[in-house]
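Students often ask why inverse folding is considered easier than folding. One informal answer: many sequences map to the same fold, so there is more than one right answer. In these notes we will look at a single instance of the problem. The structure comes first.
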């Protein structure tokens, strides 16, 4: 348990060598999302592996108020710092965690050697028109969540919704550092498998991201939903192995 800013966070560490693989799950999910992948990665890579529960999820304390990416970045940084992990990180970020990854690599230069972004939320997706459509489409879902029994997952999702518009307007302006290599894994269905227009823009955002630097590439996970680590763990493991080979090990 890591203490920071008045709350505690659960971090889970599998010992190994550098680079350290840090697995960050998507919105409303905790470290258990990676439970089947961790032993495979440990056996295949020998790397130290870290998973954790963001505030309000799993065994970590809840923090009231709207979810802010800056708070999530601060929590992750504090946990890694207290664990002595300050460099040679391969960051593996799924879905919403792509937003944390983007802020983290900008705020902590030199900490991340490379990243695998698994069907991740990327800045290019949040054009003004798309953001308006997503907010409108989410209204019914938010209203339904508010009526459901309160759980950690529903409270976390509602916290994200509170500041969604302004937060993603700002996120749309962010960029990924040119010196941090990345592999973007795109799912076959995207998170918008019932909305062709949204799905197309999601794919366009993945393609735009990798086009911005020569040290990025795109992998499409065939036959997968948005939950690529569940549906196609082999694709995720291969991308992590490739990134470790690119950044080296110590």
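Output (designed amino acids):
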């Amino acid at each position: 348990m890591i203490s920071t800013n008045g709350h505690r966070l659960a971090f889970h560490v599998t010992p190994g060598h550098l680079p350290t693989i840090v697995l960050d799950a998507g919105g409303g999910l905790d470290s258990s999302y990676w439970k089947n992948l961790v032993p495979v990665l440990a056996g295949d890579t020998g790397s130290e592996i870290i998973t954790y529960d963001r505030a309000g999820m799993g065994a970590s304390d809840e923090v009231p108020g709207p979810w802010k990416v800056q708070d999530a970045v601060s929590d992750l940084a504090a946990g890694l710092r207290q664990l002595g992990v300050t460099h040679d990180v391969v960051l593996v970020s799924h879905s919403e965690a792509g937003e944390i990854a983007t802020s983290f690599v900008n705020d902590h230069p030199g900490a991340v050697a490379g990243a695998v972004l698994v069907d991740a939320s990327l800045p290019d997706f949040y054009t003004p028109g798309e953001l308006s459509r997503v907010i409108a489409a989410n209204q019914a879902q938010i209203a339904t969540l508010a009526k459901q029994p309160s759980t950690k997952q529903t409270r976390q999702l509602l916290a994200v919704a509170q500041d969604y518009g302004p937060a993603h307007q700002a996120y749309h302006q962010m960029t990924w550092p040119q010196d941090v290599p990345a592999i973007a894994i795109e799912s076959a269905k995207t998170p918008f498998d019932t909305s062709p227009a949204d799905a197309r823009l999601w794919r366009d955002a993945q393609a735009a991201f990798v086009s911005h630097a020569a040290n990025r590439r795109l992998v499409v996970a065939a036959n997968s939903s948005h939950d690529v680590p569940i549906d196609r763990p082999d694709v995720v493991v291969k991308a992590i192995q490739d990134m470790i080979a690119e950044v080296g090990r110590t």
